[in-house]
Write a structure and sequence with these properties.
Number of strands: 9
CATH class of one domain: Alpha Beta
Order of helices and strands: EHEEEHEEHEHEHHEH
CATH topology of one domain: Rossmann fold
Pfam families: Guanylate_kin
Number of helices: 7
Protein name: Guanylate kinase-like domain-containing protein
Radius of gyration: 16 Å
Organism: Promethearchaeum syntrophicum
GO molecular function: kinase activity
InterPro entries: GK/Ca_channel_bsu, Guanylate_kin-like_dom, P-loop_NTPase
Strand order of the largest sheet: 2-7-1-8-9
Shape: globular
Length: about 190
């Protein structure tokens, strides 16, 4: 690949974005083309269910003011930042995949016009069960309620470049995304 491709992975909390991505990475050959997944900076304490770099709100603001992020967003009372390294990876011809909030897609498209949006779709009932089972928040917690309400309202994303159904066997969703990624590698060679 001469130029890299940026894929933004979106979907409701509990849709399985990280599970799909981890499965892709564990079986991807670097000989095809490297896939890079930047660790996001998030203003919350570390948690075993998601790899990220924990920073304080004050540290986040300082980093943002020092232009250390390519993309940022604020959701569920948390700040998220994607480090600038993604721009270098794209210039080196790598595939870059980032789990982001759908709220930043219009801004991201202005910065990276060729990006592709991957929407991971899961029926609300499955989403609710997954949010409960991962245990990040108690069910009476305000953040839990916000995630559930947002999932109920956002069951579709018509502007996605591809929709991956992750309501059944994880491997089916993984294969769908893998085939989609491979179609870009083949086009670029």
């Amino acid at each position: 690949m001469k130029n890299g491709v940026l894929f933004l992975l979106i979907g409701n909390s509990g849709s399985g974005k990280d599970s799909i991505l981890n499965a892709i990475l564990s079986n991807w050959s670097e000989e095809i083309t490297p896939i890079k997944v930047p660790k996001r900076y998030i203003t919350r304490p570390s948690h075993k269910t998601e790899p990220f770099l924990s920073v304080t709100p004050k540290e986040f603001i300082k980093m943002k003011n020092n232009n250390r992020f390519s993309l940022t967003w604020h959701i569920y009372d948390l700040d998220y930042g994607v480090p600038k390294i993604v721009e270098q990876w794209l210039s080196e011809g790598k595939i870059v995949i980032i789990n982001v909030s759908r709220t930043i897609i219009p801004h991201a498209r202005r910065l990276f016009p060729e990006l592709k949006v991957v929407f991971v779709k899961v029926p609300f009932e499955i989403t609710l069960a997954r949010i409960k089972s991962r245990g990040r928040e108690a069910e009476n917690d305000e953040m839990f309620k916000l995630r559930v309400n947002r999932a109920k309202k956002n069951q579709n994303y018509p502007d996605a470049d591809i929709i991956i159904d992750n309501s059944g066997d994880l491997q089916i969703a993984v294969n769908s995304l893998r085939n989609y990624l491979l179609s870009f590698v083949q086009k670029s060679e």
